[in-house]
UniProtKB/TrEMBL annotation, chain B:
Pfam families to which the protein is assigned, alphabetical: TauE
Family affiliation: Belongs to the 4-toluene sulfonate uptake permease (TSUP) (TC 2.A.102) family.
Record-given protein name: Probable membrane transporter protein
Coiled-coil regions, chain positions: none
Topology term for the membrane: Multi-pass membrane protein
Keywords linked to the UniProt accession: Cell membrane, Membrane, Transmembrane, Transmembrane helix
Source organism, top-level taxon: Bacteria
Length: 250, 304
């Protein structure tokens, strides 16, 4: 009984101090099909003070959109006997296929290193779970290589002034997804930060999936691969044959 | 015109892909080669994942060679018996190629292997072709030298046991030789995503000693069936054949091939061969320097 009361009191206390985040995503279902050239997501919402009054203090908002993680190998090219070949490699068990972070101010100004690591705030703090035993220096090199590569592919990004907060109540951020994103369940996580502390966070899910013809082709190629292969061959032969006939007529 | 490729997982400009197919088609119409040696590297350069590029390019070569086989077949330019033997070897070779591909991929050296293969193959064939075409083009001396080579197969081939008669090719040789040739070309098809015409034609002429009027037709016949086999192999193992990409490439290449054939009729074959040799050598040189120049991307990512 005592413990229940304590828990309740704690909840009350924290509820009194911490604001409530009400996040929303402009689109929770992104359909990849013909004509898909990427899309822009609007992540918006409100910060409400439980006392009812407008949030008196300054909040900063950080929004993180993260794609499904996958195990990958990163290879590094080096010069061997004059030519450039893949030399070292390193494996990461949980590399996000997409990672975009937008904040109202630079992350370094908002939280300290430790908090940034805990909440995975920033491209320098991705939790990639490297596997195999290699020294930290080497690991850092591979991580930097991976982040740099994906950043230039538009898959990883960091926008330090990407979140607009109006009247300390409403916030909004725009994050664009390129056309080469992986399908799967994305998470949009919003953090409210004040005085170096994450005081509230909320998660919304965004589903990126192929639909229609594109979905059909993907499933067909995966599940009916024999039939799919035959169809591809047939299409190829058919086109060539028809073209040959047409040409013979001319 | 944005087109989303469902297997390659990216959006491309459809017109660029069609133009790429057309370029390949013009080449195949002009020179009688599949043009896969250009499609695959260009697709990769455009951002298509390498496996998807190689798999889809080989499917496209199937379509590009059909009309050629039909045309040559009508005028008796295909030795079907010889073709069947090389196709048999080609299918085995494609299987070996797939195993090699997987092995080199696992140790992370597939890119280097492919580049070196391109440099060696294209460099050798290109310089051989250039020399031969140059001698034919050079005025004066060509007339002094009547059809220089006696058509004759290589000495090593004569010692092989079990001789068959190949009427179309005018040969009485062991089928083991064309079978081995088929295996080698099949493996290259799978590894490099090329049809292999630029290797088959000279090998059939100078190693097997087939009569020249069936060489191109029989080579196309081999390419047709071996690329079918590699398409099936890719469909079953790598799932990397992108049917939308193939369709775009085909639209370009079948129309391009018509233009190529028409241009070809306006020029002397010796000059055409010289131009082809120059293109092949250029690609080889580009890839040769590519090996030594610091690559744009030091890091590459592959799924585990």
């Amino acid at each position: 009984m005592k413990r229940v009361f304590l828990l309740f009191a704690l909840l009350m206390l924290s509820a009194q101090r911490d604001p409530i985040l009400v996040p929303e995503v402009s689109q929770d279902d992104i359909q990849v099909q013909q004509g898909f050239t990427g899309t822009e997501l609007l992540l918006f919402g409100a910060i409400l003070d439980p006392t009812g009054a407008r949030a008196g203090q300054d909040y900063d908002i950080v929004v993180v959109l993260k794609g499904p993680t996958e195990p990958i190998t990163v290879r590094e090219k080096a010069r061997v006997g004059g030519i450039w070949v893949n030399a070292d490699s390193s494996a990461f068990q949980s590399a996000p296929s997409f990672f975009a972070i937008a904040s109202s101010r630079p992350i370094d100004d908002l939280v300290d290193e430790r908090t940034a690591v805990i909440y995975e705030l920033g491209l320098d703090h991705l939790q990639l779970s490297p596997s195999g035993t290699i020294d930290p220096e080497e690991q850092a090199r591979f991580t930097a290589g991976l982040v740099d590569l994906r950043r230039r592919q538009g898959l990883y990004k960091e926008v330090t002034d990407g979140v607009q907060i109006s009247e300390q109540v409403l916030y909004q951020a725009r994050i664009s997804l390129p056309s080469n994103v992986q399908t799967g369940t994305y998470t949009a996580e919003t953090f409210a930060i004040t005085r170096g502390r994450v005081i509230a966070s909320a998660i919304a899910e965004v589903e990126v999936r192929k639909v229609g013809f594109e979905r059909f082709v993907e499933v067909f190629a995966e599940r009916q691969s024999l039939l799919y292969g035959l169809l591809a061959v047939l299409m190829s032969v058919g086109t060539g044959w028809i073209a040959g006939r047409l040409f013979a007529m001319i | 015109m944005d087109v989303y490729l469902p297997i390659a997982n990216l959006s491309v400009n459809g017109l660029v892909i069609i133009a790429l197919g057309a370029l390949t088609g013009v080449l195949s119409g002009l020179f009688g080669v599949g043009g896969g040696f250009l499609t695959t590297p260009l697709l990769i350069f455009y951002g298509v994942p390498p496996t998807v590029a190689a798999a889809s390019a080989s499917t496209q070569v199937t379509g590009a060679s059909v009309s050629g086989v039909l045309a040559h077949g009508r005028r008796g330019g295909v030795d079907y018996r010889m073709g069947a033997v090389t196709v048999g070897g080609g299918v085995i070779g494609a299987g070996i190629g797939a195993l090699l591909f997987r092995f080199f991929q696992a140790i992370g050296q597939i890119d280097t292997v492919i580049s070196i293969l391109y440099v060696v193959m294209l460099g050798t064939i290109g310089s051989l072709m250039a020399r031969e075409a140059w001698e034919a083009v050079r005025p004066g001396e060509a007339s002094e030298k009547p059809p220089a080579r006696k058509r004759r197969h290589h000495r090593l081939i004569a010692v092989l046991p079990l001789r068959w008669r190949f009427y179309g090719s005018g040969l009485y040789i062991s089928p083991i030789a064309p079978l081995l040739l088929g295996v080698a070309v099949g493996a290259l098809t799978m590894l490099m995503g090329v049809g292999g015409g630029f290797i088959l034609v000279p090998a059939m002429l100078y190693i097997l000693g087939m009569s020249a009027n069936v060489v191109v037709g029989t080579s196309l016949f081999n390419i047709l069936f071996v690329t079918m086999a590699t398409t099936m192999m890719h469909a079953l193992t790598t799932h990397a054949v992108d049917i939308v990409l193939v369709a775009l490439l085909l639209i370009g290449s079948v129309t391009g091939a018509q233009f190529g054939t028409q241009i070809a009729q306006k020029f002397k074959p010796e000059y055409l061969r010289l131009v082809l040799a120059a293109i092949v050598l250029l690609v080889a040189l580009r890839m040769f320097f590519g090996l030594f120049v610091r690559p744009d991307e030091i890091y590459t990512v592959v799924p585990l």
